[in-house]
């Protein structure tokens, strides 16, 4: 007896189609290739987009979320939904500044996981693979995420974390690291200047959920030779776009006092 569920089969067939496609595909192409009514194909694609498994491009074209292709999106439904909310804003930010834009979340152990990126358009640009288990103490993303975590858990993380000098610029003094994390909480952003990667700099700001909890951080990553002259403008941009993503995520600053200030 065939125990396949028709709706589940259709979802899997659509995911398989998106996974093997080398370019974004149109609604018409999906319906024709899979033999679905156009209305049904549209509903299924809309569901995949809302859950973060697919991304909608301009011109009614669809592609698989790259986070799903490379790993993190399949295992974290919350991450996938956050990526779906954030990526249009990330692309807008990338197009505005020309630099690479990253989205990161804190892992249970306090380390950093990058879950989405939009690679910059500059001829010389910063890039990195999406990955988990990255150090938080020396990255702008990580410092923001530690700054808005439970202070007790942040202290425990820093006490047990192995602090390594990754570059000549890495801050390794634990007192100074704690001070930088406190600065990130007070100022609403963090900076890493060639501490994680030689010649790579980053500025990051928090992303809130509807309850006022910081659930992610947005980062602009830039090569060092452009950083000094662009630092303030990049800070302004990353803070503004992080607020936009927070608003899309249901956050209302006025409901949480100083949380969104």
From TrEMBL:
Alphabetical UniProt keywords: DNA-binding, Transcription, Transcription regulation
Gene3D superfamilies per the UniProt record, alphabetical: 3.30.450.40, Winged helix-like DNA-binding domain superfamily/Winged helix DNA-binding domain
UniProt-recorded Gene Ontology molecular function terms: DNA binding
Pfam families: HTH_IclR, IclR_C
InterPro entries named among the record's database cross-references: GAF-like_dom_sf, HTH_MetabolicPath_Reg, Tscrpt_reg_IclR_C, Tscrpt_reg_IclR_N, WH-like_DNA-bd_sf, WH_DNA-bd_sf
Domain of life, per lineage: Bacteria
Domain HTH iclR-type positions: 5-66
Residue ranges occupied by any IclR-ED domain in the UniProt entry: 60-251
Protein name, UniProt field: DNA-binding IclR family transcriptional regulator
Source organism of the structure: Labrys monachus
């Amino acid at each position: 007896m065939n125990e396949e569920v028709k709706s589940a089969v259709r979802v899997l067939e659509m995911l398989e189609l998106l996974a093997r496609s080398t370019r974004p595909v149109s609604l018409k192409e999906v319906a024709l290739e899979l033999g679905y009514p156009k209305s049904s194909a549209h509903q299924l694609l809309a569901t995949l987009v809302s859950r973060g498994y697919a991304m909608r491009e301009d011109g009614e074209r669809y592609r698989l979320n790259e986070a799903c292709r490379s790993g993190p999106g399949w295992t974290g439904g919350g991450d996938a939904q956050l990526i779906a909310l954030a990526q249009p804003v990330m692309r807008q930010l990338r197009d505005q500044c020309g630099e690479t834009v990253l989205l990161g979340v804190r892992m249970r152990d306090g380390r950093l996981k990058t879950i989405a990126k939009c690679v910059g358009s500059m001829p010389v640009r910063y890039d990195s693979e999406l990955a988990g288990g990255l150090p938080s103490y020396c990255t702008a993303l990580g410092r923001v995420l530690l700054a808005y975590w439970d202070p007790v858990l942040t202290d425990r993380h820093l006490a047990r974390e192995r602090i390594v000098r990754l570059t000549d610029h890495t801050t390794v003094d634990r007192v100074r690291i704690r001070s930088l994390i406190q600065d990130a909480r007070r100022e609403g952003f963090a900076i890493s200047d060639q501490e994680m990667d030689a010649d790579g700099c980053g500025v990051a700001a928090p992303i809130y959920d509807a309850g006022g909890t910081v659930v992610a951080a947005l980062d602009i990553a830039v090569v060092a030779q452009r950083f000094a002259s662009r630092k303030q403008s990049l800070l302004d941009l990353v803070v503004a776009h992080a607020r936009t993503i927070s608003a899309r995520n249901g956050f209302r600053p006025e409901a949480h006092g100083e949380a969104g200030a």
